[in-house]
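name: query_chain
kind: protein
chains: 1
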Amino acid sequence: MDARTAATQRRANLKLALVLASVACAFGLGFIAQFALFGR
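structure:
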């Protein structure tokens, strides 16, 4: 695997990580909002 392939793979992994992190944040914020709005 040459350097260009490694850089492309790293960029793809970073993009995937950002997508997964944003989904996790949205899920967490929704869960917190549900508690805040509807109580326990």
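note: The CA atoms of residues 33 and 39 lie 9 Å apart.
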